[in-house]
Every structure is written in C-alpha cells, then in structure tokens.
Specification:
Oligomer: heterodimer
Strand content of chain B: 15-25%
GO cellular component, one term (chain A): nucleus
Strand order of the largest sheet of chain A: 1-2-3
Helix content of chain B: 55-70%
Pfam families (chain A): COMM_domain (PF07258)
InterPro entries (chain A): COMM, COMMD5
Structural class of chain A: alpha+beta
Number of strands of chain B: 3
Helix content of chain A: 40-55%
Largest sheet of chain A: 3 strands, antiparallel
Radius of gyration of chain A: 27 Å
Family (chain A): Belongs to the COMM domain-containing protein 5 family.
Domain COMM (chain A): 141-205
Order of helices and strands of chain B: HHHHHHEEEH
Radius of gyration of chain B: 26 Å
Distance between the termini of chain B: 28 Å
Shape of chain B: elongated
C-alpha cells in the first residue's frame, strides 16, 4: 500500500498537504509538462520565476526563454504557471512546518525536485520571505519622520512667552505627508503610549501564547 | 513700568461709561470676560446676553460694546505685559477710572492672572495640531502571502485638528512592526532629550 509507486500518486502523498486538500490544476498540468523537459531549460525558467517572486522585473529573461524555439509557448506557459504556484505555496509556510521530506513530491520527476527544494529550503529563502512580509495588506507605515523643537519667545498676545513646542512631519508609505504641531503635554502622552505598547509587545512575545506549536 | 493703556478719545468715553456702572455688576462682568479671554474667536456674550446687559446696565448698544471692548482690551494688555496688580491699579487710575472700579480690576486680575497667562502661553499657532493619541496592539496570525505568523503589530491613531475647522479631527493611522516602533521610540527619546536641555 505504501510502495514508492503509490506515494507518488496524486493526492495520496502526505507530503503534499501544504497544497491543501486538492492539488491545484496548474501544478498537475505542470508536472505532466515537465516530463522530458531539458534540465538546462528548466533551470532557466526556474531562475526567472524566482526573480519574479522576489519582485524583480523578469520580462527580459522570459522573452529570451520564449524566443528559444526549443519549447513551444503553450508548454512554457503551463510550466511557468505551475512553478510559480508551487513555489508561492511552499514559501508561504515557515520551514519549520514544511516537511523536509520532499523526495516524493507529487508527480514531479526526480531530477527537478532537488532544484525546487534548493529554492524552498536554501539561502534565498530569507530574501523571498522578506519580500512576502512587505507585501500583503497593511495600513500605511512610517517612511520618514522629522521633527523640530521651537521655543516661542513672544507672541501677539504675550510679550514674554518662552513656550517650547514641537513640530512633526511624517511621511507615510502611501505617499501622504502630515505636518502638525504637538504641544509638550501631548508629546509626553505620545511618548508614554509608545513605551506602553513596546512593553506590551515584549510581554506578548514572552507569554506562552506564542509557544503554540504548529 | 511702561504705560499699557494710552488715554485715547474712545478710552475716555469708555471710562466715563464704566464709571457709571454699579460696582458689583461690574465685578461680575469682569470675571466673565476674564474666563473667556484666552479663547480667541469666541464672543464673550451672546446676542441675547448683550440685550440683557444693555437694560441691566442702562447703556445703549454702542456704549455697551465700547465698554465690553475696552475692558477686554485692558485685560489683554495686562496679559501681554504680564503686569502686576498694583501696577495695573495705578495705570487705571491714571486714565481716570474711579478708584473702586480700579480696585475691582485689581482684585479680579490677582485672582486669575497666572492661569490666564498660562493658558494664553499654551496657545499654539499652527495649521494643524495633535489632539488625540490612540492605539491598538494586534497579533498577526497569517496573511495571504504568509501563513503561521506570530507577528505583533501596533496601529497608532493620531487625531489631528485643523486650526480653522473647530469640529473636524483628521485621523491619521500608522502601522508599526516591533522593529519600526522601537525606531520611532528612539527618535521620540531624542526629542525628549532636546526638551530636557532647554530647562
């Protein structure tokens, strides 16, 4: 029942659990197309797909590959789609939960599994994960923060004022800039609140809630 | 001490009108004006209150507004130069305000002087002012691009009020990861160090 042959069958393998209950069609089709694909060609395509995941512009590379008449365009598109999907899904899950046993991944021919595995488990992984952290829905974050402390010496209502105040300028990641003045008392409140949040974050990171084993 | 009030024609007229007002009514008037002195753009008395005042003090509309404006002016000047009560009394007597009224000014001023000066000092000239700070601490469990996270994230809500729109507060939301928040805090600490070096 658990002969090597059966393990490679669709859906029966335990190791394909990271793809969910049903294997996405792109991956199935890709697996078929990978048969008798040249190793060299495969490596080129893989490289292009990985740089696409990293967010780089890979149109040049793809064009170069497409122009190489050895692979018909339709086949190429299946392979690229399948690779992209497979890698995205694999990268989504932290390495600790992804099983190291990838030898029997689906129906992918053996020679290509090592290449896939090197992407998913190799040192490029951290770079790819960093990109994934930046993407995804986020409220605007602080891109640039500038400040200035002023002391008002005299105003139209007070000859000798000598009142300090703070001017802040925040540039957010969505492009908006906010410039506003902060009275000293409000500044203290802001500082206190930020310190409080940091303390709570530290407590959170120590608590056993975070020791949930995946 | 330089004179804070010069005796112009309108001042003379105002003083004449003020001297006719009953003392205790005038004292109450004074304290009411002092209360609202630090707020700009706000009329001390509403329309109907002014009507009532007209009949109560037996002054016509023009004289009443002159009295109110002059009293407010005297007090604003007192705030500007931060005069001592004794000095204020002297100056008021110079412009021929009756001694009892001058005394009333003096007493009212002594009572509220430091508060009013402090409030005026705190007023800031800026198109936008930070009014409110709120926050939320979240633990991110997963995203569409990453599963099985345990990422603490904070969202800071800054309520910024525009100088001209009294009621509208613009809310600015900024999200921070732990690292980003730590950086922000270090910058705030630098600002604090600068503030401390001033005193």
């Amino acid at each position: 029942m658990s002969s090597n042959h059966a393990k490679v069958a669709v859906g029966a393998s335990k190791d394909s659990s990271f793809l969910g209950g049903r294997i996405p069609s792109e991956i199935e089709i890709m697996a078929k197309q990978l048969k008798d694909l040249d190793q060299e060609m495969f490596r080129k395509i893989l490289k292009a797909v990985v740089s696409a995941i990293e967010g780089k512009d890979c149109r040049e590379a793809m064009k170069a590959i497409a122009e190489n008449a050895a692979v018909p365009e339709e086949r190429l598109s299946y392979v690229v789609a399948g690779m992209y999907r497979l890698l995205k899904e694999a990268l989504r899950i932290p390495t600790s939960s992804l099983k190291q046993e990838v030898k029997n991944w689906l129906l992918i021919p053996e020679e290509f599994i090592t290449d896939f595995a090197s992407v998913v488990f190799g040192n490029r992984r951290t770079a790819l994960e960093a990109v994934a952290t930046q993407q995804g829905p986020r409220l605007p974050s602080l891109k640039d923060f500038r400040w200035r402390v002023d002391v008002a010496i005299s105003t139209s209502s007070l000859a000798r004022a000598l009142q300090p105040s703070i001017l802040m300028q925040m540039k957010l990641s969505d492009g908006k800039a906010h410039r506003f003045e902060v009275p000293v008392s409000k500044f203290q409140e802001l500082r206190y609140n930020v310190a409080l949040i940091l303390k709570e974050m530290n407590d959170l990171e120590k608590r056993s809630v975070l020791n949930i084993q995946d | 001490m330089a004179a804070i009030i010069t005796e112009t024609q309108s001042i003379k007229e105002a003083v004449t009108s003020i001297n006719t007002i009953e003392l205790n009514k005038f004292s109450r008037l004074l304290s009411r004006i002092l209360q609202k002195l630090h707020l700009k753009e706000e009329r001390t008395f509403s329309e109907e209150e002014e009507q009532k005042l007209q009949s109560a003090l037996s002054l016509d509309k023009q004289d009443l507004s002159l009295v109110l404006d002059t009293t407010a002016f005297i007090l604003e000047q007192a705030v500007y130069h931060n005069v001592k009560p004794a000095s204020l009394k002297q100056q008021l007597e110079k412009i021929h305000l009756s001694p009892e009224k001058a005394e009333a000014f003096c007493q009212a001023w002594t009572a509220v002087c430091p508060d009013v000066v402090e409030k005026v000092r705190q007023r800031i000239f800026a198109p936008k002012k930070l009014e409110h700070v709120g926050w939320q601490l979240n633990l991110q469990m997963a995203k569409s691009t990453q599963a099985k996270l345990k990422d603490p994230h904070a969202v800071l809500e800054l309520g910024v009020r525009n100088e001209d729109s009294q009621s509208v507060v613009e809310k600015v939301f900024v999200e921070f990861s732990h690292q980003e928040l730590l950086q922000f805090y270090n910058q705030l600490e630098t600002v604090q160090a600068q503030l401390d070096s001033l005193t």
